[in-house]
Amino acid sequence: MWCIPDVTPEFVERMEHILGLYERSYNPKEPIICVDEKSKQLLQDTRTRIIQKNGVTRSDYEYKRNGTQNIFVAVEPKGGFRKVSVTKKRKKKDFAQFIQDITHLKRYEYAKTIHIVLDNLNTHFAKSFYETFAKKEAEKVLKKVQFHYTPKHASWLNMAEIEIGIMDRQCTKGRMESQEKLKKNLRAWTKSRNKHKAKIHWRFTRENARKKFKYERYEGSREKRKD
């Protein structure tokens, strides 16, 4: 369900900017990547699972809690590519290292600018890189990427949420007792999705937004942001 705040000038500006990005033609030199994270609780069965004759596995309602893990998801909707990483936490350094890993991928070796769509979580800003890396490395990573933030309370504009929903249904819905099991399942899922170059076909355009939220065509300008 969408949670729509007041349609302020700032909301419109950010929404139009994100939707404008999504309307661009695919360009490997300036890929558009959506990034988000998801918490996964690790649950271990306390009783042996029963495999029925029809192959269906049944678990007892009792389980043991083994803590939680964080799953970073980056998806390139028009390129049919995604990268997933499991971390114990989702602190500033975890986010900074995940973005650094993206910039090091061979796929983006010759990219001029990697456009990254994010929500407004307090770890998603340049200061995370300066607190994690030496100044030279932080500037190297930030020079390669450009962050684009969704409006506040409008993370539904981030296509990474769609990919996470698919991941939940196809891979992470059931109980997993350990980080190793979670990583193994996610590696197989990611490999399969990338092999088939699964894409996300976004249909909500700026024109759709103007009709739905009842505002006139936005004519403002937006400076490039590196924060």
Write a structural description.
The strands form two sheets. Strands 5-4-1-6-7 form a five-stranded mixed beta sheet, sandwiched between helices. The protein has a two-stranded antiparallel sheet with strand order 2-3. It has a single domain (9-213), classed as 2-Layer Sandwich (Nucleotidyltransferase, domain 5). 36% of the residues lie in helices and 22% in strands. It is an alpha/beta fold and 227 residues long. It has helices spanning 9-22, 92-104, 127-132, 135-144, 160-172, 179-195, 206-213; strands at 32-45, 50-51, 57-58, 63-76, 81-87, 114-118, 145-149.
Topology:
Layout lengths: L8 H14 L9 E14 L4 E2 L5 E2 L4 E14 L4 E7 L4 H13 L9 E5 L8 H6 L2 H10 E5 L10 H13 L6 H17 L10 H8 L14
Parallel strand pairs: 1-6, 6-7
Antiparallel strand pairs: 1-4, 2-3, 4-5
Helix pairs in contact: 5-6
| CATH H-level homologous superfamily name | Ribonuclease H-like superfamily/Ribonuclease H
Percent range for helical residues?
25-40%
Q: Looking at CATH, which topology would you report?
A: Nucleotidyltransferase, domain 5
Structural class: alpha/beta
Distance between the termini: 29 Å
Overall, the morphology is globular
What is the radius of gyration computed over CA atoms, rounded to a whole number of angstroms? Answer: 20 Å
Number of strands: 7
CATH architecture: 2-Layer Sandwich
Number of continuous helical runs: 7
Largest sheet: number of strands, sense, barrel closure: 5 strands, mixed
* Strand arrangement across the biggest beta sheet: 5-4-1-6-7
Report the β-strand fraction as a percent range: 15-25%
Taking pLDDT < 50 over at least 5 consecutive residues as the criterion, the unreliable ranges are 221-227
Question: What pattern of helices and strands is seen along the backbone?
Answer: HEEEEEHEHHEHHH
What's the CATH class label?
A: Alpha Beta
How many discrete structural domains? 1
Q: Could you tell me the mean pLDDT?
A: 89
